[in-house]
Amino acid sequence: MSFQSLPISIVIAIVIGTAQMFLLTVYWAYIGVYSPVFLWLNDLGLQGLSLRVVIFLIDFFTNVLLSLPAAYVINKLRPKSIWLYLAVAVLPVFVFTNWLLITEPARLTQFVPWYTYVPGWIFGLAVLPVAVLIVHRLTKHSTRTPTKLAPVS
User: Fold this and answer.
1) Residue 126 Cα distances to 16, 26, 87, 103, angstroms
2) How confident is the model at residue 124 (pLDDT cuts 50, 70, 90)?
3) By the 8 A CB rule, do 23 and 69 touch?
4) Are the CB atoms for 24 and 67 separated by under 8 Å?
5) pLDDT tens, 29-72?
6) What is the 3-state secondary structure (H, E, C) of the chain?
């Protein structure tokens, strides 16, 4: 990668990270209204912490699945260090969405304890990197040399 393409790739990563978070927010606003998953899990008898854990896992894997197109674009930037592009794609949106918690933590934690924000932090920081790792593993070409092929008879 040349130095001239690095700033362009960083801008592309920022745009991809921002667009991905915006689209996930729109998607979850729609799903929150029309999804029957919560009712199904409640009908199965899940309540309390077990219900929260199952919903968290479903939401996490759904977010990873929805982030695969953004992860593919970031993977196509062909970075030497993919972590630079992931940081540039994830951190600005994470800081923006948690700005009040960063600047005025006493105000936000006055009625709700700080650990209630942890699932959102995990979503904000881990979804796109997990999706990029999946895309990277799926698109990586095998470096193995095939062994001697069996004769076809």
Assistant:
1) 15, 19, 11, 22
2) confident
3) no
4) yes
5) 888 888 888 889 888 888 888 888 898 899 899 999 999 999 99
6) CCCCHHHHHHHHHHHHHHHHHHHHHHHHHHHHHHCCHHHHHHHCCCCHHHHHHHHHHHHHHHHHHHCHHHHHHHHHCCCCCHHHHHHHHHHHHHHHHCHHHHHCHHHHCCCCCHHHHHHHHHHHHHHHHHHHHHHHHHHCCCCCCCCCCCCCC
User: What is residue 134's predicted lDDT score, i.e. its pLDDT?
Assistant: 93
Of 78, 94, 95, the closest CA to residue 126 belongs to 94
Residue 1: the pLDDT is: 46
Token pair of 93 as six digits: 């949106």
**Structure tokens given for 87:** 């940081």
Paired tokens of 79: 């970075």
